[in-house]
């Protein structure tokens, strides 16, 4: 495994719509392993491929007992609405408050071998999945702020550099 470099928001790759994965060759397992390792190293709970400079539709996420690597994800059902606070490994030092997300989502996609998968998620895990899928569409949490004052700089001691640092429902 190897750590990959996490790119930050001024990099235009983060603004591109990432491409679908069509070929599921065995080298993808190494990429997934690297993404988990990079995410853990940065104390994150999610990481999308564009954040390591690859504009392809893959993300990894881990929260409590859920650990997923999803290829070509699509939200097929979304229910409810909640406001919450999010951070992003690509926007270090900042958090956004009152970010609106669905409370429950169903996500369809494929696993590392190309097999179809379906995930049901709720609460913080659902928020993480929505944040990561946004990355695949070139969207950052700062785009979802209703008011500019909802973006705040974190004091250095609080700068955990975590993806989705908190959830306030
Ligand atoms: Zn992010």
Concise structural overview:
The chain has 169 residues and is α+β, with helices and mostly antiparallel strands. 17% of the residues lie in helices and 31% in strands. The chain has helices spanning 27-41, 123-136; strands at 46-48, 58-63, 66-79, 82-86, 94-101, 104-110, 116-122, 151-153.
Explained architecture:
- There is one protein chain.
- With 169 residues, this protein is α+β, with helices and mostly antiparallel strands.
- The protein is built from two helices and eight strands, in the order αβββββββαβ.
- It has helices spanning 27-41, 123-136; strands spanning 46-48, 58-63, 66-79, 82-86, 94-101, 104-110, 116-122, 151-153.
- The structure holds zinc ion.
- Residues 88-90, 131, 135, 163 line the site of zinc ion.
- Oligomer category: single chain
Q: Quickly give the structural class.
A: alpha+beta
Report the major sheet.
5 strands, antiparallel
Percent helix among the residues? 10-25%
Which terms would index this structure?
169 residues; alpha+beta; three-stranded antiparallel sheet; binds zinc ion
Secondary-structure blueprint:
Blueprint (H helix, E strand, L loop, with lengths): L26 H15 L4 E3 L9 E6 L2 E14 L2 E5 L7 E8 L2 E7 L5 E7 H14 L14 E3 L16
Bound molecules: zinc ion (ZN).
The site of zinc ion has 6 residues, from helix 2.
């Amino acid at each position: 495994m190897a750590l990959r470099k996490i790119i930050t928001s001024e990099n235009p790759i983060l603004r591109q719509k990432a491409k679908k994965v069509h070929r599921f060759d065995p080298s993808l397992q190494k990429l997934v392993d690297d993404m988990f390792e990079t995410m853990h190293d940065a104390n994150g709970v999610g990481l999308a491929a564009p954040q390591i400079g690859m504009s392809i539709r893959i993300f990894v996420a881990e929260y409590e007992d859920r650990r997923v690597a999803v290829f070509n994800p699509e939200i097929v059902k979304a229910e409810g609405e909640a406001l919450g606070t999010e951070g992003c490994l690509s926007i270090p030092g900042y958090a956004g408050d009152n970010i609106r997300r669905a409370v429950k989502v169903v996500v369809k996609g494929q696993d590392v071998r190309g097999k179809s998968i379906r995930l049901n998620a709720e609460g913080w895990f659902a928020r993480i999945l929505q944040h990561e899928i946004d990355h695949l569409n070139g969207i950052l949490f700062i785009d979802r702020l209703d008011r500019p004052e909802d973006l705040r700089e974190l004091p250095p001691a609080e700068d955990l550099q975590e993806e989705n640092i908190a959830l306030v429902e």
